[in-house]
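Quick one, T. Sequence first:
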Amino acid sequence: MLAYIAFNMAPVTRAERVDAHKDRIFRGHDYSQQEFLRFVLDHYVAQGVSELDTAKLPQLIELKYHSLGDAVHELGPVSNIRDVFVDFQQHLY
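Structure tokens:
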């Protein structure tokens, strides 16, 4: 919206934003991490930016993997999961 107001540019939908930045978002991540990011991005597109809050991470893990232990098995240590969740966002905006 800010781009629209400041520069008279059409607003970009969340889906368009994800599509435009997918390559940069997924670069450097293995298959399991990319699958997790796809899941997170789907929630972002459907629900909005609040899904990218770190406070939502435990809920997203629970939805995707059903337990933290299963997520750790797939993605590695909790600190790595958090890094993947936080770091990709710099490429989204």
